[in-house]
Specification:
This protein has about 575 residues and is α+β, with helices and mostly antiparallel strands. It contains 15 helices and 18 strands. Its EC number is 2.7.13.3.
């Protein structure tokens, strides 16, 4: 037998020392197991990797098993047994428990060698510390879970916000809010409490898991909230996040108040309506304590802001509803007035005019000149009153007696109006030129009234010693893309004259009821005609405006929408 030389022994020791240094730097170890007697025949760096004291390792397989976490031990043995049966390779990740009870993750890669007869006799394994990798993976997984959760919560928050903005019913909004928030936070109870002037609260909405006390509909008073300091803090936007009411630094009365609703942790956010504290949005955890995250707190704060916006919108809607109801009431009164005007007022006027005519015929010779003048004035006043009532009736009937829209040929309507105004045109020596006018969906009677008022005014307000010339034509506007996408185009009806014109400061005023710029001795009329024109255009979803310069005529522009008929 050849003896190992001292020089060779030294080289082996140096090689082992270098290998230990390399394995230690790489957080690795190598060991070889004699399968027949479960003895470690060689092992390098095992104590360091398994956290054992130097020379405390007894070179047995059981010593390795004792270091392994109890949850991984059976799996560790089963993998080795399969490798021995298959006489193949193996790889396993497992945990070892160090002397200070900390955990270290290892990965073991090895192979089983048989002897010449095929019996497994030896197993060699390389162990490597992968604790840092496992920590990084766990941290990354946690970050991914947190990101996924925040993404989900963000999407759900967006859905809640959309529901809030789509709904005009505050009751539905509050219901949606508590239901969705409970799902978002997986809280045991979510409440909306409305604050009253005496600082008591009414639970107006609640979403709660089965088995817990129901708060909905209860009126409650928290003596702590009666403290002006606490109240002012909430008025300034205070958010309260209590993870455990038993250990939190809160007053005993507040703890007792929460315990009656089985609360162990709560998150409270104020709700403001137009900068005034309206109430509280509250999440309760009742089955266990809970640490509220910054993201959850911010979520509830933003939702409270959205509820505040919805409350403000609801207040505006309520005012608009009241205003609309007031308008309906006013319209009903206007209809009643129209009925009275068409019956009770007109009958006395007809009698005044009829008996006035009889008086002229039967008593003409017996009336003095002054008496006859009085009679003439009386009848003229009755006629003006009759005209005024007729115009007011026409104004009221724009909406109360409106007809459904049908296809209206404006050119034909204009010709009919000229026929009605034939006598006035002859008296003034005027001329009316009709250009191209479209066919539109409209109320034919109101379109006739519109053109008759505009053309009649143009003939009436002409310059002395100069016959009126009136031009009526239409033009299509450069419509925007949004309207064209909805097959809607706008056009204008223009009535232009060479009359007396009017100052620019009166261009808006003339469309108001009873607005006259001239005396009755100069020009007849009631001051209602252009108000009727404006109401007709508004009923047809359009507008009317005037352009004029004194002494240079006037131009009235009616802008109306028209549905475009597309050929398929």
């Amino acid at each position: 037998m050849t003896k190992e030389l001292p020089a060779q022994t030294e080289q082996v020791h140096q090689w082992e020392a270098k290998l230990r240094m390399a394995l230690d730097a790489a957080h690795m170890s190598i060991w070889t197991l004699d399968i027949r007697n479960h003895q470690i025949t060689s092992g390098i760096n095992l104590e360091a990797l398994f956290g054992l004291e130097k020379d405390s390792f007894n070179n047995t397989y059981e010593a390795i098993l004792n270091c392994i976490h109890t949850e991984d031990r059976e799996f560790f043995k089963r993998v080795h047994q399969q490798a021995i049966e298959n006489k193949g390779e193996f790889e396993i990740e497992y945990r070892v428990v160090l002397a200070d009870d900390s955990i270290r993750w290892l990965v073991s890669k090895g192979v089983v060698w048989p002897d010449s007869s095929g019996v497994a006799v030896q197993m060699c394994a390389v162990e490597m510390d992968i604790t840092k990798r496992k920590q990084d993976e766990a941290e990354l997984q946690q970050q991914n879970l947190q990101w996924q959760r925040q993404t989900t919560l963000t999407q759900l928050f967006a859905n809640i916000t959309l529901k809030i903005r789509q709904s005009l019913q505050i009751d539905e909004i509050l219901d949606t809010s508590v239901t969705e928030v409970q799902k978002l936070l997986q809280a045991d109870r979510v409440l909306i409490l409305q604050l009253h002037s005496n600082r008591s609260f009414l639970a107006v909405k609640e979403a709660v898991v089965p088995g817990l006390p129901v708060v909905l509909g209860q009126r409650m008073t928290d003596s702590c909230f009666a403290d002006d300091y606490i109240y002012q803090k909430y008025c300034q936007g205070r958010i309260s996040a209590i993870s455990d009411i038993e250990t939190a630094q809160i007053q005993l009365c507040h703890v007792e108040f929460l315990q009656q609703f089985a609360v162990k942790a709560n998150l409270v956010v104020p709700i403001f309506q137009t900068n005034q504290l309206w109430g509280l949005l509250i999440a309760h955890q009742c089955l266990h304590t809970r640490e509220w995250t910054d993201w959850e707190i911010e979520l509830l704060r933003q939702l409270a802001d959205q509820i505040g916006i919805a409350l403000a919108q609801s207040l505006i809607l309520e005012k608009e509803t009241n205003h609309r109801q007031e308008l309906i009431r006013s319209n009903e009164e206007l209809q009643q007035f129209a009925f009275i005007a068409s019956h009770d007022l007109q009958e006395p006027l007809r009698k005044i005019r009829t008996f006035g005519d009889l008086l002229k015929v039967s008593c003409r010779d017996s009336l003095s000149t002054q008496g006859y003048d009085y009679l003439e004035r009386m009848q003229k006043a009755a006629l003006r009153m009759q005209t005024l009532i007729d115009d007011l009736l026409t104004l009221s009937r724009v909406t109360t007696k409106a007809q459904p829209f049908v296809s209206v040929n404006l050119a034909e309507i204009a010709q009919e109006v000229l026929s009605d105004l034939e006598v006035r045109i002859q008296q003034t020596g005027g001329r009316v030129e009709i250009g191209d006018l479209p066919i539109i969906p409209a109320d034919p009677l109101q379109m006739r009234q519109l053109l008759q008022n505009l053309i009649g005014n143009a003939l009436k307000f002409h310059r002395q010693n100069e016959p009126p010339v009136v031009r009526i034509y239409s033009q299509f506007l450069n419509n925007n893309l949004d309207n064209l996408e909805h097959n809607i185009q706008h056009f204008q009806i223009i009535v232009e004259d060479n009359g007396i014109g009017l100052p620019e400061k009166y261009l808006d005023r003339i469309f108001q009821i009873f607005q006259r710029l001239h005396s009755r001795t100069e020009y007849e009329g009631t001051g209602i005609g252009l108000a009727i024109c404006r109401k007709i255009t508004e009923r047809h979803h359009g507008s009317i405006k005037a352009q004029s310069t004194p002494g240079q005529g006037a131009k009235f522009i009616v802008t109306l929408p028209i549905k475009i008929i597309c050929n398929s």
